[in-house]
Structure formats: structure tokens, C-alpha cells
Automatic annotation (TrEMBL):
Pfam families: Methyltransf_16. SUPFAM superfamilies: S-adenosyl-L-methionine-dependent methyltransferases. Keywords: Methyltransferase, S-adenosyl-L-methionine, Transferase. GO terms for biological process: methylation. The gene is Mettl21c. One of its GO terms (molecular function) is methyltransferase activity. The lineage of its organism: Eukaryota, Metazoa, Chordata, Craniata, Vertebrata. InterPro entries: Methyltransf_16 (IPR019410), SAM-dependent_MTases_sf (IPR029063). This is MT21C methyltransferase.
Amino acid sequence: LTDSPEILEILQNWVPRVSPYFDKEHYMYAGHQIVIQESIEHFGAVVWPGALALSQYLESNQEQFNLKDKKVLEIGAGTGLVSIVACILGAYVTATDLPEVLDNLSYNISRNTQNMNMHKPEVRKLVWGEGLNEDFPVSTYHYDFILATDVVYHHTALDSLLATMVYFCKPGTVLLWANKFRFSTDYEFLEKISNIFNTTILAEFPESNVKLLKATAREN
């Protein structure tokens, strides 16, 4: 964690919505307008700052992180914004989240990618730490990138989340995790990740308290 991170701010690159209702947000990434339907019923159905930060970073650093034709897994995909951006950038994307979030996630991904000449994203259920070997057997599933945004907050599934990251982050895989740091638990999770993976803070967004980390598996 000794490298100096890039200090950035989240650009206001979304279009103000005309509708007064809390339903749709319009964003611009990689030359495409992305329309995201949010829901106040679930934490996972709202766009959080980490998703904006990672989307912006992927768009701006395509030479460093070239997603074209790469296999990308997003865990805790929420509204699907990051998965949609990764798809626009040419990745084979699998977007995952809890069952109650999948309808809205599928809707957003479908409406934003249906008319584009790109790899069609897949939406799948993934409960952290549960059924990983059955649903995503190592012999079949290997990902070039694991993406995660604002998956760490005040909840009880942090050990399961860490186990899920360890399961999917094999040698050769890059984990990119962006998170708004609010609680001591966030920093404790950062410490745990740093103890397991080779970890670098790529960027910080001080106004939003977001840190963006890159992690890779340590060679035995």
C-alpha cells in the first residue's frame, strides 16, 4: 500500500433527471448514455459513489486495464452500472447479486446493452460464501477481473465477502474494489485484504471518501 494513489474527484457526468420521482438516473460513460432505474427498497438497487468512481476509472484507464474480450465478474452488482460500463468497454460480463436485486439488475443491463454490438452480459445469483464451488466451479470459471463497489459497509457478511473474493481471485486475476470509507469496519476489511492479497491503492476520491484498490493473488 506504499504507492502514492492518484487523487481524483468523481466527475458530475450524469444528466439531471427531468422526472421528480426517485426512479431513473442518466449517466455518460465511454460515449454512451446509460439509464439506470433505482429502487429505494434495497440497498443494492441504488447507485453508490464507489460505482461512479470505478466506472470513471475504467473509462479513463483503458490502456492500463483493457477489458476488451476479458472475462469480468462483478460481485454485488446492484443497479448494474459498473457491469454495463465494463460491457461497453468490450468485456464478457457476469453481473451477480442477491436474488431480490436481480430483477432490477437484469432490467438495467438489458435496456442499456440490447441494441449494442457487444458481448451480452449474464446476470446470475451469487450469495457471498454460499455454493461457490457448485455454482462457479473452479474447473470451468476463471475471470480476468473481479469488480466490486461499495460492498463493504455496516453488515454481517464481511467474512463471507472476503471468502468470495479469495475464491474468485486466482493467480492472473485482478480484483478492483472501490468503496466509500465510513466506518472502522471498512478499514478493518482493507487490512484483511492487504494481509491476503498484493494490494495497491490506485486512486482516492477525497470529496467522496472513496478509495479504489487493486488486489492480486500472492504467488505461493
